[in-house]
Design brief:
The structure is a homohexamer. Chain A is of the alpha+beta class and about 325 residues long. The first copy, chain A, is about 40% helix and about 20% strand. The first copy, chain A, is elongated. The termini of chain A are far apart. Chains A and B meet through helix 6, helix 7, helix 10 and helix 11 of A and helix 4, helix 6, helix 7, helix 10 and helix 11 of B.
Chain lengths: ~325, ~325, ~325, ~325, ~325, ~325
């Protein structure tokens, strides 16, 4: 567990902790002697560093490192902090705590998962409840379900993001199915809970969030369907039509071919799931985008993906009657 | 008030009631004598009719009629019913009850409007409540609000459709703003209630639903903004920022320029209102489309606008646990 | 096996064979007596028929029939042939030979399949050859592979169409991989052979070609991947990377999300497979479209899907030097 | 009124004038003493500056300044001019002359406005003339009409740009309505004059050109319609149909929903107004873009918005016969 | 020259004139005897006809006719006129006057062409004037230029349409180049006059307006460039740059690749020519579309290509002040 | 012929060779004395240089140079090599060997051209063979055909690229026409060989690859058609229909208007040529893109134009059975 985070290190302080080694360049001084420029980073930011002594030994020991134990002192160079490093040694990936290097949901993962289990228990359709229970009983799956991110960027792009997103959608699904009569509540909720499970394998998120080979080559919709197919085999007498409708929810949850769904929504539940996904990802994504602005701005900067500035300004609702 | 509706008239029955005169053609028999072929209609369907006698007098009296008082007897011709008409006289448009000729919401208009008034009373933001009260106090407006359709076709295309659609959206807005923290519930609900008021003038719906000149030339978004501007003048000290945010909800509720909104949604409330509008119009539109299919079909016919067939089939939720 | 086909039945001939019952209407004569109008069809066309006698008995016996054994004589009515039917009895779907009612490839199915087996034997990559052999050893699969159509319309929309299309693509893949160095020939050929196997379940083609529920709800790409996943489990030590690359060929063979592929082609083989699919379906589709024109036309009628007329005219190549 | 403009200040000269304070950073020397780096700008460009002495006092006095009175001497640093500042004091926004900081039309604003008044007087349709006169009699409106820009960039993006653009369009409208018979010349000219009035409030242009909150939330088309509605109330007996047609010109002048018009042009005059707007904004925009290139270029750089290079080169018309 | 036009032929009149033979079907009466049903047409409409006698001889003589000399008498059948034909003989295409069968411009072709010659004489750029003179001196070209249509439908789709359209554009170009300074007036006018010359070969318009093989295979832009290239060879010392700019006007006059221009407009003149073409084709097309409506309609029917109804109604300009 | 290439020059070496003068800036030292910063480049890269002495003379002698003879010594400045230049003199463009400054195909140009001649000789359609022979007999054309690039970037963007691309397409065309019966092989091959000849004039490629004025104003499709028209005049009795079909191949080879073809492919040969062009440019472009990545990457960087990363990784085909 890291103790020193980059955004808290002051000039003049000694440093001795684990960092990701983002960049490393071997340089040469005018007198011909070598030195090393590096960039170290963790989830709070990055900092430059320089190695003046023992260059050959240090260079060799971190030649293929992704993480290093770094020792030295923080100085100031051209008005920004810089670590003068006295030593760096390799730090195996296995020994890393991802939460030191990856952003994490601000909500409590276990509480959220408990809420999911309660929703599961509330299912009146037996075989749907059994299906979810089969997923939760698969502890390897459940552990990954709790930490997978929902995206590389844009929305819920942090550890626990997929759980947070799926739970929020499931609760929203419950509210909306209560508004309209004749919605298959249980099917819709299961759809919300399982729609993104393919992201467990679409992304890599041990110490940075990125696409996996499988994610780029076959897409989380396809992976999720495969995971569902495997689990369906373990539930006795799961009705064939319901299995098709559930797969359809996963297949169509992006809303149109243009956005990556092989088929568009063709049931009321699928139409709703697509909108619920849209709402939850947009609300989260726009709020994260607003939160990244400095506090006195009335408008965000330009959101390239959504093609507009968003209005932050003085909320009407705050004004008393 | 009509008593005879076309879908209930049996062969052999006498007819004496008001009908819309959809088509009229003066024909000539082989012997050179004239006769009249007509098509009569009401909200339940249409029927062919023929006038053999007094052709000149009847033809003159209904020369520019949109509605006629028709008398005669139902016979059968080529396996379909046909009225042999003994007389037709003009029936002024003013005397027509639109609900005889227009489809009407299946829900109770007064109950729905009462629900809106209760929502209005629940507003904690005083000036927003006052704004709604100003609208309801304008009885001419309120009367039209109750009967306007929400569309010419596709969804809620019937008398009372805009009220039904707006109320449903307001209640859904309440549910969704309860799910997410930090939403301006009252603003969102007012947006849902007022977003389509321009349709009061965009459409004509006295005895058929069609676009008005104003509707085609300036669009319901623009008309609605003008109606809102006029009403805002009557509320003391309505905060300027809130007025802008409310107008923004109307301006942006179609979601993008491509769909007719001069600006896309730029606040969380505007983003939500657009999705709530999408959800409610799609749920209603798809269900009406499904309902028009014969009961033993598993799939609807092809929905041209949405580019797909919809699945009706044996609902999963019906199956007991 | 039918002996009388509609396009060959002459006026005055007796009729006694199986037909699809496309339409059936109970009519009533002026004297009040009922009669039945029907439309009968097979793969060569359709013909009108009428039942004057034994109306109640016949009507009852075919009340839910899709196929009937029809007996009667061909007469002429308003310049077109019509069968005056003396009897019709139900004909169970199971007893029908689809090739009487469905268009069939003009090429020999068994010869084409033999060619596929030879291609299979030519594979140098052992696990790819074993995978294909596992598919062919699954006789239920192989039987369906031989008869599935490749589409409902547009191209190869006939019994045996998927086999014809896949074989043509595989042979084209062999030619093109010979032109460029460094292509994984075996992988590309297996991709060509398996890319459309999901169509075996996407379509229904017992007596008419249409989408199945599964086809409309989850799409042939998804179905095909599931079939591949099941079969991969039966091949020992199938390399994981190759499995991913093969799935990627199926996932991306439509070329872009807009056309239903969850991911676009990201390997040279996937890029080629998409073009090979495009070429083979367009060459077949355009030629079928040209063949349907009357022989003296220089241009086809307007091809709505492709947005143009095609030029048939006097081929340059025919002109001697 | 500024006397020293940045593009004319020479190395070695003293400086004492008003500048916009574009950037300000508090820095620290190696000896720990603070200094201030600033960027100063006016409509002719920007220049770096540095404060070595009295850093605390100066920093406090300009802590929230947008404009400053700056005193110092121009030196050279790394081959570019830099002001060594001896003092800076806050300069209230109210005291600023926008034309010192904003680009201004190269044409004479009063002459252009006189031309508009003559066009107004030439109107034969009384109520249209009265409407324009009502606008001009509103001196607050008229003053803003004279200085508003037509855009933030792309075309006529300078003080007086909207007037220049609208007048040019009105004169072009006169020419085109003279070419075709049956055009309502007066309506078309009024449409040209009023089509962009919403930009008076859509933009802020006191000392920089940017969007206002209202502009971003409701768009200049909507604002312009509101301004027109208010003014129409002041003209007696303005025909209702003409009011609709005039609003339609404003509503539809962007030509399609995709470009922000809630309705596309549906009258000949509206179709023409859209093209006249297109022509005038493109001719101005492309010429400004060409003018920004160095004089010996044959082609402009790539115009991102219009997706092409434009040809400047040796004009054919220059060549004598 | 035809004397009897279909819209003027009354019941009971004898007929003896040339008609296009649009349809011909050999029928058989209940007694087995043959008769012929035909549809005859000219530019004013079409009429049904029937041949009862001499069926074999007549049938043979018109077996491949496109035009016939028809003789008979007009009767009435099922309330519509029908010609009972006593004879029909083939009428060679060469003997046909196209203006009997094709719609023709309502303006005088020779007057329009004279106006073009005056414009030509007004050119101050010698080599551009010489180029036009070279075109007009080519009498075969000039004769076709006078009669070619500008389109198969949509706008100016009649004999003389291209001349009418090109002249109108040239005069509009003169007005617009007078409005803006610095436009190469002569180049723009020559562009307007020559931009569509490829349509002379793109269409066939001897007795119906349709695409030629060349038109469908290579497009009028390409054909027009080839015609220009040939003519440029005949003008001495035509400057190379001007030739390129003139070709660019033809290449780019559709405005974008999407509309068939290989390159978009890259000079001010090309930008203007595209808008002038747009204006003139839209004004003509919309007016023709409005003119086809019955006189009491306020709105046109839906214009499929342009995606809207157009407003015809009571023109503002008609109302007195 | 250059001997010193930038990527091979070591620190400390003397330099005396020809370089492109990419950038030149006159600077001033603190003591007021001028010096010159330059960037020199050739096909292997670029290097900075500085002139300290004889600044005025050298500056004058290279004032408008594109290429210079440069003399000096390589030193190191801020860890990168820099030439301290003792002299630079102008080097006329005519004396430059483009292959020193432009990338060149890795294949042998003469061998490729020989292969084309063999293909030409294999034509059975006499007039097509004669047409090609007429092109090859035009030595100015043939010389340019051998060296023209196929693009400015994306694919085959090097000297000899068009020849390499056209030959590859012709050979692919031969393979594909052998797969399908009924293709006009000779026509398709001639189309492949000539489809891009307009690029000979569309680009400038003496010492850098860029668009020519003609290329930007009229496009290579139009230029190629003009070149074909000229050459067709030299072949006796070339059939008119074949000429049209050949022009159609050039006109339509981009596949759709959106991609710059005035008409889409309307013959089987044109459909195939478009796909063959797509395949060959994509295979070459993607492989070049992959080759530019560092050897240990599994994925390429993001390909902006094609909107994806490409998979390079461990090829399945490499794995032994």
């Amino acid at each position: 567990m890291k103790k020193q985070f980059i955004n808290e290190i002051g000039i003049g302080e000694p440093v001795d902790d684990v960092f990701a080694l983002s960049e490393k360049t071997l340089m040469r001084r005018k007198d011909g002697n070598p030195y090393i420029n590096v960039t170290l980073s963790d989830k709070t930011g990055s900092i430059k560093g320089v190695v003046w002594d023992n260059v050959d030994r240090i260079s060799a020991s971190i030649s293929s490192s992704e993480f290093v134990q770094a020792r030295g002192n923080v100085t100031e160079y051209r008005n920004t902090p810089q670590i003068v490093l006295t030593d760096m040694t390799d730090c195996p990936v296995d020994s890393i705590d991802p939460s030191d290097f990856l952003p994490v949901t601000r909500r409590n993962i276990d509480s959220m998962f408990d809420r999911l289990l309660k929703l599961t228990a509330s299912m009146e359709t037996g075989y749907l409840r059994e299906l979810l229970e089969a997923f939760w009983a698969d502890t390897e799956f459940a552990d990954q379900y709790k930490i997978a991110p929902a995206a590389v960027n844009m929305h819920h792009s942090y550890i626990g993001g997929m759980l947070e997103h799926s739970l929020s959608m499931a609760l929203l699904a419950e509210r909306i199915s209560g508004h309209y009569g004749g919605i298959d509540r249980d099917l819709l909720i299961v759809g919300a809970i399982l729609h993104d499970i393919g992201k467990i394998r679409e992304f890599e998120y041990r110490y940075k969030i990125d696409y996996s080979d499988e994610g780029r080559l076959v897409n989380h919709i396809v992976i999720g369907l495969q995971m569902l197919d495997e689990k369906l085999l373990t539930v006795d007498n799961f009705p064939e039509e319901c299995a098709l409708l559930l797969k359809h929810l996963i297949v169509s949850h992006h809303g149109s071919r243009e956005f990556g769904s092989p088929e568009p929504p063709k049931t009321i539940e699928a139409v709703l799931l697509n909108y619920i996904d849209e709402i939850d990802s947009k609300v989260n994504g726009i709020r994260e985008f607003m939160a990244a602005e400095s506090p006195d701005e009335t408008w965000t900067s330009f959101h390239r993906m959504l093609g507009r500035h968003f209005y932050i300004g003085k909320k009407t609702g705050d004004v008393a009657d």
